[in-house]
Automatic annotation (TrEMBL):
Pfam families named in the record: Pyr_redox_2
Protein name: Pyridine nucleotide-disulfide oxidoreductase
Location of the FAD/NAD(P)-binding domain: 3-302
Cross-referenced PANTHER family: FAD-DEPENDENT PYRIDINE NUCLEOTIDE-DISULPHIDE OXIDOREDUCTASE (PTHR43755:SF1), PTHR43755
Molecular function GO terms recorded: oxidoreductase activity
Source taxon at top rank: Bacteria
């Protein structure tokens, strides 16, 4: 029987499972990851406001795996021989006919003193830390910023930082203590969020001004000290620092025969094949793909890539040539706790809707719809 090994248990990995089974693929599927639970990170933005709990965002996958006849190997991937299609894990090697790399990436930690900031998208624990720190503050300055991977400018996940900025501002207003806090948004880019489109950036900067947020933009970061961000354009004193650095690949990627991009991600093609490695596929944040300069690092794009590669594997197993290209598409609702701004990009289309209350509820409804498959 054909064996498909899927590395990871996040969005791309689970979407690949669903699409393979939907296409009638009866192959043996092994999901390799340390945990058999999905952490729904898009909703961690609501933890500080109490709209979600940490445990409520952790979905056990036992039933999902059983329904789809999937074996879960609780293991950490330590390496990969792509040419031989052998996955190295701390529980021993795993051989497979097809390997899907859906491990996600990691955030760069090269900036001196980065341990003095909270990196929000590193996981649920980071959001819990933000909630605890905010609750303990009676006032002061909250600095929120982001940067990219200088070797691969597209390797950035900046949208959540705008959401944290607007959500914390709204939350403090609802609590009646916003006047005791200052907000500063910082970035080496003079116009952060450009992958969303120029109109969206204009809207974001205008919203910052409306909310009384000070900006510190266009200055290269030097270091982060306890209570201080140092840039080439000056210093920012802060009582709470949230910082999202650029992304790169997992550390073990560099020890394999996988082709890597300048930023350290795995090079995939438009069909989500790893370049020059037949039978090895990549989807989501682990990969670097051809496409427009705004190609996003987000769950929606990971899902689209996973569906494409699953269709291509299904075609190969049926004796057909793979031909399904993934669709470059960006869609997000930038939430502010009581409203949301919609941004959509596909091809030449770049739609931006202003902050509207129904969009906040639409984002919450989408979460419920998406997670039904795993509950």
């Amino acid at each position: 029987m054909t064996h498909i090994a899927i590395l990871g248990s996040g969005f791309a990995a689970l979407t690949a499972v669903r699409q393979l089974r939907r296409r009638g693929v009866s192959a043996k599927i092994t999901v390799i990851s340390p945990r058999d639970a999905l952490h729904y990170l898009p909703s961690t933005i609501w933890l500080p406001a109490g709209l979600r709990t940490a445990e409520g965002l952790k979905l056990p996958l036992g039933r999902f795996f059983a329904r789809h006849n999937v074996t879960h190997l609780a293991a950490t991937v330590t390496g990969l021989n792509a040419a031989a299609r052998v996955v190295e894990t701390d529980q021993g090697p795993v051989e497979a006919d097809h390997i899907i790399i859906a491990t996600g990436g990691r955030f760069l930690r090269k900036l001196p003193g980065i341990e003095n900031a909270i990196i929000p998208c590193e996981g649920i624990a980071s959001a819990e830390a933000i909630a605890a720190r905010l609750a303990a503050l009676d006032g002061g300055t909250i600095a929120i910023g982001m940067a990219t991977n200088p070797n691969e400018p597209g390797a950035i996940r900046g949208g959540p930082m705008f959401e944290y900025l607007f959500i914390l501002d709204t939350l403090l207003r609802k609590q009646g203590r916003r006047e005791r806090f200052n907000f500063v948004f910082f970035s080496p880019s003079p116009r952060p969020g450009q992958r969303l489109g120029e109109k969206a950036v204009d809207g974001i900067l205008a919203e910052m001004r409306r909310r009384g947020v000070t900006t510190h933009l266009g200055h290269k970061m030097v270091r982060i000290e306890p209570g201080k961000i140092v840039t080439e354009g000056g210093e920012i004193a802060a009582d709470l620092i949230l910082f999202q650095p650029g992304m790169t690949g997992l550390a073990w990627f560099a020890e394999t025969d996988l082709p890597l991009s300048p930023g350290g991600m795995i090079q995939g093609d438009e069909l989500c094949r790893v370049v020059g490695r037949p039978g090895v596929w990549v989807a989501g944040d682990a990969g670097s793909f051809p496409g427009p300069d705004w190609l996003p690092k987000q769950a929606h794009q990971a899902d689209l890539q996973a569906k494409a590669l699953a269709d291509n594997i299904a075609d190969l197993l049926a004796g057909k040539a793979p031909s399904r290209r993934f669709t470059p598409e960006l869609i997000c609702i930038m939430d502010s706790l009581d409203s949301g701004m919609l941004v959509f990009r596909r091809g030449r289309i770049n739609l931006v809707l202003p902050a509207l209350k129904p969009l906040h509820w639409l984002k919450r409804a989408f979460e419920n719809h998406y997670l039904k498959a795993y509950r």
